Amino acid sequence: MKIVILAAGIGSRLGNPFPKPLTPLANQKSIMRMQVENLSRYFNVDNIQVVVGFKKDLIMERFPELTYIYNPFFDQTNTSKSLLKALKKNQGNDILWLNGDVVFDHRLLESLLPSLEKGNSFVAVNTNKVGEEEVKYTLNGEGSIDQLSKEVEGGLGEAVGINFIAASDLEAFIRRLEECGNNDYFERGLELAIQKDGIRIEALDISSYDCMEVDFKEDLDDANSMFRQ
Question: What distance, in Å, lies between the first and last C-alpha atoms of the chain?
Answer without folding.
Answer: 30
